[in-house]
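Subject: complex prediction, re-run

Hi both,

The earlier run crashed halfway through, so I resubmitted it with identical inputs.
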Amino acid sequence: MSHESQAVVNDISKDELVENRPSSLKRWMRLLWRSKTGTVGLIIVVIALLVAIFAPLIAPYQPQEINPVNMLKPPFWMENGSMENILGTDNLGRDIFSRILYGSQISILVGVMSVVVAGFIGVTVGLVSGYFGGIIDNILMRLVDSFLAIPTILFALVILAIFDSGVFTLIIVLGVTNWVNYARLVRGEVLTLKERDYVKAAHSIGVSNFKIIVRHLLPNVISSFIVISTLSVATTIILEASLSFLGLGVQPPTVSWGSILSDGRDYLSTSWWLATFPGIAITITVLGIIFLGDWLRDVLDPRTQK
Amino acid sequence: MNNYFVRRILQIIPVLFIISFIVFTLVFVAGDPVSLMLPDDAPPEAREELRETMGLNEPFVVQYITYMGNMLQGDFGESYRFNQPALDIVLDRLPATMELAIFAIVIATAVAIPLGIWSATKQNTSLDLIATGAAVIGKAMPNFWLGIMLILLFSVTLGMFPVSGRGTAMHVILPAVTLATGIAAEMTRLIRSSMLDSLSQDYVRTARSKGLKDRIVVYKHAFRNSLIPVVTITFLQTSTLVGGTLITETVFAWPGLGQLLIQAVNTRDMAIVQASVFIIAILVILMNLIADILYRFLDPRIKYN
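This time it finished cleanly. Structure:
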């Protein structure tokens, strides 16, 4: 990874980056501590992950637990609210707080896994396209152009209209519609990398194309990949919420932040808390991921800063 | 340069072919539309007859060629719900979406330009912090949730704006603001970084050392040059903008292309889906082409080869 690039990073000086190649956790933590937003981002992301993992332990109720005598109760600080349902209940008497905790599992799972799928397709296409060039590159890049011309959400909608939606379908669909950015990024990097001496040397002593791609090119694109995939988890969480909001994402009884929000929309005039809290959960989580991603970009890849 | 644009325009042809192929394949996989078009108690012979007349019994390749042939003549088939040519319905809805998008872009620009310039000229002050903070929050908020919150606050609680629909100027404000927020957030970040870049250039230093007024240096020298990436990237964001209108129109029951499309997807009205995807794709491709041309026009230093 070329840390010696020209750009100057936020509050970390260029010299420090070059000298302190992030080789140990301690150095990483020190770099992180320097960036306030990066630290905040990491804390939010860690909390969100812990919440998702330990939701069954933290949540006071089951997410599907219906309570007909306890419908549409407001949050605890309002009149009629109580500490038993701190964020209130929905039209079926289900506890909003518990639903949001459980919802984080699906939102984060879909966000992360679909980025893995998209990354796998995109990096493979980018490596092949950039390395081989010529007609292969031309065909793959027209494919990329085609995907770019259709808004991701539209593409996902059309596919979800055809196949039954569920968590697994959603991951695949969001992966298949989101790989283009990775392909473009990796291709661009490979185009410069393949002119480097070590790649030419490997080629001249008869190392196979496959080995050159996997051993010499792939490791060099990983850090840029990490940066955009982090930021991409944020946009995918929003995308999943949008699709679930439109009724084409996860199906009941599975809950995600988007589906809770969608349920709450019909009770907007009487029970504002139903649609408000899941949105806050999404916004804070996405904010944390953006902060963390921006920090990673500054540290890992100063060139993409612009 | 002319060569570049000729090649650039020629590249659009295979792209449109690939898109048509993807869309056709998806619809093909989606299965039999006959069951949607006829009532449940229709006799099997009637179904078979309709299938035959629609050419659904032909092999995939034949169907695709017929489909392409019709499409090149502007025929995307008929919507089974409206009993009208799909393309007509789609084009009918386009102005409403355009109206929303244009209002949103105007609002976004009006907010983002001053915010971006201020935060760049006053880098690391509290004003900068507020502007960049607002931008990042605007980016983190899901569009549809912001829309719902605006309805909750301004329509339900304060009663200032209508909850949904299209008609008066009051109707367009909330959906346009919703759609504008995401764009403004991205634009502010972009203008800020582009301005910071321009402000550190030699010509700005020269202008300052000549003793020019700060205002002139900022607006005349730095801002004009920092507009180049801003304008082109804004055009390149058409795809995101269209994606945003899909959701925003649904939240506000805005009778545009987005709302039509979501309804079409839910009712599996595939003729409408195909026609809208295609129209949107052409729109996005055209905007990207304009971005390319503008880029060249705004910055004569750029040479294409």
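Residues 25 and 165 of chain B are 35 Å apart (CA to CA).

- K.
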